[in-house]
Amino acid sequence: MEARARCRKVALEDMANFLRTEGNVAIFDGTLTTGEKRRDLKETLNQLLPGVYVLWLESVCTDEALIRMNIEAISKAPDFVGKSCEEAYENYSRRISSYEATYQTLSPKVDGVDASFVRLINFGHEVEVYNVNGYIQSKIVSYVMNLNPIRRPIYFSRHGQSEYNKENRVGGDSDLTESGVKYAEMLNLFFQQEVRSGELKHFDKSSIRMFTSTLVRAVHTTSKIKLGVKPMSLKILDEINTGLCDGLTYDEIREKYPLVDKERKEDKLRYRYPRGESYLDIIHRIEPVIFEIERCRGPVIVIAHQGILRCLYAYFAKFDIPEIPHIDIPLHNVYKMIPDAYDVCLLYTSPSPRDRQKSRMPSSA
Question: What are phi and psi of 263, to 5 degrees?
Fold first, then answer.
């Protein structure tokens, strides 16, 4: 117990320092089974960081099938290394029984009328919210309401090669080249194979969601995928707006706007094209798409653009924000990821057998 108390103290001090110096939101993951323990923790936090807002998150599960699925996912946690799924299930079931004997559910009576909390029942089938105030707390509530534990594949791919890709131009709304059309056709064959013998065989086709941008090259690519699924074209999935540089080659940008080239190389994350966007802009822009992907209980396919997929891939693969503009997302490749409780299974392939041997996971450049 003394070791646990010391660890809690260090964690809280670390969290307070993070909030004081660089962050807006921090998560303390602890087994706070009684109102007294929660009040003590809140008091300690207020001593370390006066005026801090605390939002409690409580997950209540009464569905036995969901409990078992959750324990199976938790069995991959460090606590259960070397144990079988059944051993983990028995161990965690005993923990649950132990907690049930003393647990006090969140309530104004137990935690105080000034407490703020969210209660998720059976992984969001029901949600109770109490005393939630302000933008950040409301955004957290919106986020957790869209989470679900269902294991399902998520596929990302850029559109096929466009005329502007071929000419090394930025932005624009050009159509596919012959090579781009061939890729789109191979992408269709790839997904047909996934339906027959891959991840998609475990799902009804009606559960598949497909998203793309409104730009011609992405819409054309998506139109070749014949899964009986109507794609949803979203403006927020359009490529980064290059403003005054739209349609120019990189050589023309260097010649016409030398400061653009220089300043963007110095800070690619924050640099905003004249009358255009920065990577920070599109990180905020695609937030609703992230919420929607998290909410989906079936497979998700996203056909979009390099800048957009860098942001989406970074979110699921847990890249740090400064790395996002440098993640390698080449044309004519598919990124398949399967989110799990403690990790994300990442697979990378090319629909073209000739190119598969070159496949590698995107990394920070």
Answer: -70, -35
Residue 323 annotated in active site: no
Catalytic choice (2, 22, 29, 266): 29
Contact partners, residue 359, CB within 8 Å, separation at least 6: 333, 348, 349, 350
> CB neighbours of 192 closer than 8 A, spacing ≥ 6?
226, 227
296 is catalytic: no
pLDDT in tens, 246-301: 999 999 999 999 999 999 999 999 999 999 999 999 999 999 999 999 999 999 99
Question: Of these residues, 111, 194, 199, 239, which one is catalytic?
Answer: 239
- Respond yes or no: is residue 29 known to be catalytic: yes
Q: Report the distance separating Cα 365 and Cα 354, nearest Å.
A: 25
- Global pTM reads 0.87
Integer CA distances (angstroms), 9 to 3, 30, 32, in order: 10, 12, 14
Q: Which 8-state DSSP code applies to residue 163?
A: H
pLDDT tens per residue, range 338-359: 987 666 777 767 675 444 434 4
3-state secondary structure of 231: coil
Respond yes or no: is residue 159 known to be catalytic. Answer: yes
